[in-house]
Amino acid sequence: MAGGDCGRMFRLQIPPGRRQNLAAEWNAAVVVAHNRPVLDGPQGRIALRSKGIVVPKVMITKIIPVAFCALLVAAPGQGADAVVLRIKADQVAAHVSPMLYGLMTEEINFSYDGGLYAEMVRNRSFKDDPKEPVHWQLVQEQGGTGTMSLDPGQPFNDAIPTSLKLAVTQAGGRQRVGIANEGFWGIPVKPNTRYRASFYAKAEGFAGPLRIAIVSNDGATVHASAQAPRVTGSWKKYEAILATGQAKPSAENRLVISAGSAGTVWFSMVSLFPPTWNNRPNGNRKDIMQILADMKPAFLRFPGGNYVEGRTIATRFDWKKTIGDISERPGHMNDAWRYWSSDGMGLLEFLEWCEDLHMEPVLAVYAGYSLAGERVAPGADLEPFVEDAIDEIEYATGGAGTTWGARRAKDGHPAPFKLEYVEVGNEDQFDRQTGSYEGRFAQFFDAIKAKYPKLNVVTTARVSGRNSDVLDEHYYRRSEDEMASHAHDYDTRDRAGQKVFVGEWATRVGAPTPNMSGALGDAAWMTGLERNSDLVIMESYAPLFVNVNKGGMQWPTDLIGFDALGSYGSPAYYAQQMFSLHHGDVVLPVTAQGVPTREWQPPAPGGRRGAPGTPTPPPQPAPPPQQVPTLFFDATRDSQAGTIYLKLVNRAGTPQPVRVEISGLSAVEAQGQAITLSASAPDDTNSITEPTKIVPMTTNVEGLGANFTRTFPPYSITVLQMKGK
Ligand code: AHR
Known about the structure:
Layout: E1 22-25, E2 30-33, E3 36-37, E4 47-48, E5 52-55, E6 60-64, E7 74-76, E8 83-88, E9 94-95, E10 103-104, E11 136-141, E12 145-151, E13 163-170, E14 176-181, E15 194-204, E16 210-216, E17 222-228, E18 236-243, E19 253-259, E20 263-273, H1 286-293, E21 299-302, H2 306-309, E22 332-334, E23 339-341, H3 347-356, E24 360-365, H4 383-397, H5 403-410, E25 421-424, H6 436-451, E26 456-459, E27 470-477, H7 480-485, E28 499-507, H8 516-531, E29 536-539, E30 545-547, E31 560-562, E32 567-569, H9 571-581, E33 586-588, E34 590-593, E35 595-600, E36 626-629, E37 631-637, E38 643-650, E39 656-663, E40 668-678, E41 697-701, E42 707-712, E43 716-724
The structure holds alpha-L-arabinofuranose.
Alpha-L-arabinofuranose binds next to loops.
């Protein structure tokens, strides 16, 4: 059988009973046996001849002459110095999608409240718990007395129907009585910093001013304080700047609002912000934004994830309740991840986050299905939800002359946002009702395309009734080997179908953030995404964030960790960053010889569902062991500058010499750069206390050229940047 041009697929089905002693010949780059790319199988199951193969024991299901697929000549236990990579630098196997590397985000692991969203007060509108003012304490200093309680009898507004009542019975002189907020695992204090404090209050029988201050937990140190003017009998906003001096950075502090005389005061929407990225008033933490900016992500998929769905229809991400002044946002119970969401990170804030980091929004709209199995039937029942989605798109993109564009302008952002991708729902394959997503998707798709024909509409599960533009696929793998074993999956995917967005994936090794083993699995996988980025046009790791404090994490293995004071990138973060920052615009064909493998026992198949309460499927028998390469690679080229980027992942615990042969150029410069992320053991990691233990090192290297041998360190991810002529 002869292979053909790049991208064409041949199927060779060998009938049962004729699988012995069968030979096949072709000039293809990849042969797939048992759904795995194989050219030279272990135990002599497939033997490669010059232009042919003998197939004694394996059923070949596909022969795919895809020029850019890596030619794996895998041999278990093969000598470590036998690897040869051949790069055809004058050929283009595919174009690298300019949207390939992006971010996925949702409210999980205290990603926003207690995370990126810079608000420092927890339970600022007293709605986290309807029974008691959690995260608030009564302060009674020097014999002052009083009580603190939720008061539904003094509503602040329709969105915030309960206020906090402080009844001061005894105060005066040094006696002070007040309320103190503990923040999200502490109120962080940094030196010489100006914090913006605000709250709403009204009073009865209270003459004295209020003092607002950041105070150490032991009460010994007042880091910053200000006095609010006299409080009146009706709700009014009070604002102050709390400026610290030479304070030592610490999180063991509280925000205290206290009275020095008797009377009753009610509070609502108590807020404290540090300086934010781009000085946005309702903005994001600078340190975490910087970590993201350093990745140069092309897009942001939001607001979920399970978070967009909610466990019930009532607790979905209801975007219309997330816009406008924060004091008018009701917030909602994020029951997908079991904590209150202030919705301070609302639709406009997501879009501004995109704007701030030059990312394209990938807007996920609620599609009529929630995690606990509540769904809306297609047809008239679904129509209000479809209209909500259309309004949402108009809020993002409409001009000032449109209803929702005008609302966005009123909310402070007159200019429309660029929006090219809208995703309908999240993981709708979990909606087990036959045809439910087909029907729901079709209704959304038709309405979106009717009004916004240029928008790319993303499906979250396969549908047959409409030609969606992109399919969002999710892959969470339980080990480095498991993730690596899938690194060639897309090499053999039919190109005729829709494009793919790998919208959630991770090698789930390490908690709260992945370790080096996770990063190695990720990098192996990403060589496959990049090599196939004519098909895989976007990818985003998930989850993005975790608050590393006890109680902060609902989902282990998250890209970026933080607490109140600091933040860090995991080794997997740096792997992402290296891939995102260092690539060309075209994929080069690479073939390989002598790639070493190691045996891996795949786990028994089992389902996975992120949402709490989802039933776990019964265990099934484990499949046979597999040989998985310990070396992964891909190459791209900047067609303007001529730079070649060779990415090489050495998962082994030994140094790996690799012979690189580059053809098709008149010369390759001897000098180049190596960006290397490596660790001394697979379970080495970064943490909040050791944030930069594993970071990429950039070095100038000599001895490159059209033919050279370079040794790659154990447990390493390397980008070799070479200049071709
Ligand atoms: O990333 C965590 C969860 O995994 C997402 O919310 C959901 O889409 C997936 O199940």
